[in-house]
């Protein structure tokens, strides 16, 4: 049903631009406008039937807790992301939810961000592809998605007021592309603007962000929803393009809109535009079906969790051998941490406990299990627990230590201050390993933790992240080889916190956080600066081995390339391999990272199977954001296309030459001498004119001092004329200025 907004009063229209209560919009029954529900849901539906909150304090109705984005990011599997999104969408329909708040595609600038568990990666391409797949799956099921938090929301410290001070090139190349891809490829119903300021302007009232970029550059046609409580000025936010203020209030902000229109301070056409976008949300499904596929979605959650586990280290201890004596120690084995704290906290339909799942599989293969807690997740520690765990490990064939972080160490609302595990856990790991029993450490954490101080003492490390309600079963599947691990790191594990490029400026001071590392975020910095890491972005082991042969990069246009390679499973078990394609170049006038991820594909292969993979890269794979041109530019020159095992390991590479963009920068008197002489049209004419005007003595001096121009090439031409007493006549320069507007010939 189409609503004729001309039949609505100004007061009615303004009322539609804020919530009725914590989770729903206002209805206007006489005009046929229905109320719709928006609720948290990056990895499951948090539908609250009673008291409402945005911090996960009050209970919600049981729903499936799927693996959070930290896990799905490590799957590198767009099909899996789409499947999980679809299942979340189906549960949204079951609960009568019209808009699901998620996914989160913010970049992991620092490993200390307390909300990193809700985000996919430190890389914008990986985050964008997985986020778009999730939205596609979710919206195909019926509800709309709300991609968040737009934008540059990369910390919890002072998140409601901090100004993220970022240059435009860094914004365009690192912090905006994931949102851009989701908007363009998946057309989410809504975008959620973040709490923070960007370069001094609140995101909720930033016309450059919400209108110029989001709607102008990317063509977004949906509604912009505020993060809950993020609006600082309701009238300014309408001008900026922020449509729906959540949650509901006392109606005072609606009155502010009405007053601003009547006083001529706000164009009513802007109100109408926002109303139309909000009314589109009422066309989404909003009647609860109650049809929840509990068992089917738990199976989806278990498969997704297993696909997301990263095998970091394996000295032949995994998969666990049949008929073995297994000691399982660590509180997380019986008290699973499977999701993060805060607004996305799900009330699960059930929870798999790792110890129970391990015992079930061990029994099936004739192994025995003995378990000891080793340490407590509560404040009180019993020294006897550690001694009992070490004793059990010493009597076993293999020990599995479950370690990680609790909600006290990481959650929405605060950032971490360290990467280290709690001391009691580190001591337990070292003591168990010291028994001589091969030791495997299984980690449960929402952000990377340091492996230093115990890494070399253990035989295996399984990065299990936060895996959702079926994580316990997924961990058992991987430990016993029921599932071959295929996850790869979506963020770097550094040797030291101080090695991270954001360390000196995170989380900021006096209301500002400077993104001083620029585009060199995560692996872009580590690889470029040659900083050693414990495990690089893209790392992940398998129970089989893969080979990559016949890599070829073919130029298909001025700025496009197609890469093909044959991937083979050379082992004895089926597995999945991630083909990672990076681009390296020094072309253009800007500093580029050593390499950047530009394409990837996850491939399932049976033992002995080979398959040719084709990946197409468009111009954005080779472009940089040119601040002078105000757009994306592909510089003419050489680009090395690399198929890599991870961000540090090149398997095969080929250099191609791209025609790129033919750019002629118009000169001004503020342009440098170097710009003038380097201009493709003006430069030769200027050089020829100077040569013809030189006396023989001057020509000889120029010949004997070929580097003389370097001394003044950074000087603006205007100053150069003063410095040289008008060496070049003004009328000549004026002619050359006009000549600089002439397009250069394409070579």
Structural class: alpha/beta
Give the overall average pLDDT. Answer: 94
Distance between the termini: 57 Å
Q: Work out the helicity level.
A: 25-40%
Please tally the helical runs, counting DSSP H or I stretches of 4 or more residues. Answer: 21
Shape: globular
**Strand share of the residues?**
15-25%
User: Over all CA atoms, what is the radius of gyration?
Assistant: 29 Å
What oligomeric state do these chains adopt? single chain
| Total beta strands | 26
What brief labels describe this structure?
747 residues, alpha/beta, six-stranded mixed beta sheet, five-stranded parallel beta sheet, 21 helices
What does this structure look like?
With 747 residues, the chain is an alpha/beta fold. It is built from 21 helices and 26 strands. It has a six-stranded mixed β-sheet, with helices on both faces. Strands 1-2-3-5-8 form a five-stranded parallel β-sheet. The chain has a four-stranded mixed β-sheet with strand order 7-6-4-16, with no helix packed on it. Strand 6 and strand 7 (201-202) form a beta hairpin. The longest helix has 17 residues, at 78-94. It is globular, with a radius of gyration of 29 Å. It starts with 9 loop residues before the first helix and ends in an 8-residue tail after the last helix. The model has no long low-confidence stretch (mean pLDDT 94).
């Amino acid at each position: 049903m189409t609503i004729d907004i001309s039949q609505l009063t100004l007061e009615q229209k303004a009322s539609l631009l804020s919530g009725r209560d914590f989770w729903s919009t206002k209805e206007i029954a006489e005009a046929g406008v229905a109320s719709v529900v928006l609720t948290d849901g990056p990895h499951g539906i948090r539908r609250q039937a009673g008291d409402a909150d945005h911090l996960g304090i009050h209970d919600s109705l049981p729903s499936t807790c799927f693996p959070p984005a930290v896990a799905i990011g490590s799957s590198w599997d767009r099909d899996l992301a789409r499947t999980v999104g679809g299942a979340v969408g189906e549960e949204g329909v079951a609960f009568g939810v019209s808009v699901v708040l998620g996914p989160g595609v913010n970049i992991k600038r620092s490993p200390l961000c307390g909300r990193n568990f809700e985000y996919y990666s430190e890389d914008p391409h990986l985050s964008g592809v997985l986020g778009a797949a999730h939205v596609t799956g979710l919206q195909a099921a019926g509800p709309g998605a709300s991609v968040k938090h737009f934008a540059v929301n990369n910390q919890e410290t002072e998140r409601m007021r901090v100004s993220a001070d970022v240059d435009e090139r860094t914004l365009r190349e690192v912090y905006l592309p994931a949102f851009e891809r989701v908007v363009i490829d998946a057309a989410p119903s809504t975008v959620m603007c973040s709490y923070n300021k960007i370069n001094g302007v609140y995101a909720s009232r930033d016309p450059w962000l919400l209108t110029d970029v989001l709607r102008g550059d990317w063509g977004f046609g949906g509604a912009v929803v505020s993060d809950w409580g993020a609006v600082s000025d309701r009238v300014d936010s309408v001008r900026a393009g922020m449509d729906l203020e959540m949650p509901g209030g006392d109606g005072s902000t609606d009155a502010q809109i009405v007053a601003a229109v009547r006083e001529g301070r706000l164009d009513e056409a802007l109100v109408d535009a926002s109303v139309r976008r909000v009314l589109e949300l009422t066309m989404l499904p909003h009647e609860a079906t109650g049809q929840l596929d509990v068992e089917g979605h738990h199976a989806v959650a278990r498969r997704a969790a297993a696909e997301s586990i990263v095998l970091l280290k394996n000295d032949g201890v995994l998969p666990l051998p049949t008929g073995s004596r297994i000691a399982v120690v660590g509180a997380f084995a019986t008290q699973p941490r499977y999701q993060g704290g805060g607004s996305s906290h799900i009330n699960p339909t059930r929870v798999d406990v790792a110890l129970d799942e391990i015992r079930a599989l061990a029994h099936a293969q004739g192994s025995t299990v003995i378990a000891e807690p080793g340490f407590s997740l509560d404040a009180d520690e019993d020294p006897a627990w550690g001694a009992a765990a070490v004793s059990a490990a010493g009597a076993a064939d293999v020990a599995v230590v479950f370690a990680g972080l609790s909600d006290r160490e990481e959650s929405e609302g605060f950032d971490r201050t360290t990467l280290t595990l709690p001391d009691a856990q580190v001591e337990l790991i070292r003591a168990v390993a010291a028994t001589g029993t091969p030791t495997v450490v299984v980690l449960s954490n929402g952000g990377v933790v340091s492996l230093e101080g115990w890494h070399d003492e253990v035989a295996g490390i399984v990065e299990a992240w936060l895996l959702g309600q079926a994580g316990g079963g997924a961990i058992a599947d991987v430990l016993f080889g029921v599932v071959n691990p295929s996850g790869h790191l979506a963020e770097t594990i550094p040797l030291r916190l101080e090695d991270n490029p954001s360390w000196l400026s995170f989380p900021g001071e006096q209301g500002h956080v400077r993104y001083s590392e620029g585009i060199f975020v995560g692996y872009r910095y580590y690889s470029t600066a040659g900083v050693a890491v414990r495990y690089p972005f893209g790392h992940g082991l398998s129970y089989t081995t893969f080979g990559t042969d016949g890599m070829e990069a073919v130029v298909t246009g001025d700025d496009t390339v197609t890469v093909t390679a044959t991937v083979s499973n050379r082992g004895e078990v089926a597995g999945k391999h991630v083909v990672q394609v990076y681009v390296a170049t020094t072309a253009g006038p800007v500093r580029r990272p050593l390499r950047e991820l530009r394409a990837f594909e996850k491939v399932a292969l049976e033992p002995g199977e080979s398959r040719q993979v084709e990946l197409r890269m468009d111009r954005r794979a080779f472009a940089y954001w040119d601040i002078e041109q105000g757009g994306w530019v592909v510089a003419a020159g050489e680009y090395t296309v690399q198929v890599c095992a991870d961000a540090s390991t090149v398997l095969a590479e080929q250099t191609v030459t791209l025609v790129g963009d033919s750019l002629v920068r118009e000169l001004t008197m503020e342009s440098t001498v170097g710009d003038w002489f380097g201009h493709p049209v003006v430069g030769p004419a200027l050089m020829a004119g100077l040569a013809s005007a030189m006396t023989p003595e001057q020509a000889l001096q120029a010949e004997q001092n070929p580097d003389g121009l370097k001394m003044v090439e950074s000087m603006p031409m205007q100053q150069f004329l003063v410095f040289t007493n008008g060496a070049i006549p003004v009328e000549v320069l004026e002619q050359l200025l006009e000549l600089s507007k002439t397009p250069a010939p394409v070579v």
